[in-house]
Amino acid sequence: MTTVLEATDLWKSFDDHAVLRGISFELARNEVVAVIGPSGSGKSTLLRCLNLLEPIDDGVIRLGGDDISDPRVDANRVRARFGIVFQHYNLFPHLSVLDNVTLASRVVGRMSRRDADARGVDLLARVGLADKAHDHPDRLSGGQQQRVAIARAIATDPEVILLDEITSALDPELVGEVLELVRTLAVDGATILMATHEMAFARDVATRVLFLDGGIVVEEGPPSQVFGAPREARTREFLARFTA
């Protein structure tokens, strides 16, 4: 399998608090890796460092073989190679749904308005929101806004999709519709790294699971092993809270 994203010995601190402490892992093309762990374990910080939204203190990040942790790289160009979806949608409230989806394609990708809009409409149809193209985000439910955010993330055909606890801000009844869309992306062959607290979803959809705690990778393996027969006591302790 072709490695798309590789992190080697990543360290990140905020003031005197080390959040990432020597994390290393690889993500292969068409692989779905779930990052699980307690609050404060470093999941969101890891994703933000990979996308260069936070500078790392030490280590190397390679995307498609390119060292993107080199301080000389153009961070905006690197970010254009990722699609990222955050907990709180981050849609532009003054833009229509369609303009939110097409903005990066037009501004960064230099796609014509006509071509970008055509692709945007197709993507909105794919996520079940074609009829909302000309609405503004405040007219949508939380689940609909998150589906728009996912459509925006895949509009530029990113090499890697980063999903940062995308259901944590949703009402419980809206979680299913968003997870079903992620499941579809996975089936279609997207390369996904997702920080999630949805254990059942991670078990069913991920090809591999990383368990983070205290800024380190405590355990790594296929879902059947991590969830069914975890090797580490800390993993067993964490998962017991979800099966009790």
TrEMBL record:
Sequence intervals crossing the membrane: none
Keyword ATP-binding: yes
PANTHER family: AMINO ACID IMPORT ATP-BINDING PROTEIN, L-CYSTINE IMPORT ATP-BINDING PROTEIN TCYN
InterPro entries to which the protein is assigned, alphabetical: AAA+_ATPase, ABC_ATPase_HisP-typ, ABC_transporter-like_ATP-bd, ABC_transporter-like_CS, MetN_ABC_transporter-like, P-loop_NTPase
GO molecular function, one term: ATP binding
Major localisation: membrane
Cell compartments where the protein resides: Cell membrane
Membrane topology: Peripheral membrane protein
Regions annotated as coiled coil: none
ABC transporter domain boundaries: 5-239
Top-level taxon in the UniProt lineage: Bacteria
Protein known as: Amino acid ABC transporter ATP-binding protein
Source organism per UniProt: Microbacterium koreense
Keywords: ATP-binding, Cell membrane, Membrane, Nucleotide-binding, Transport
Pfam family, one: ABC_tran
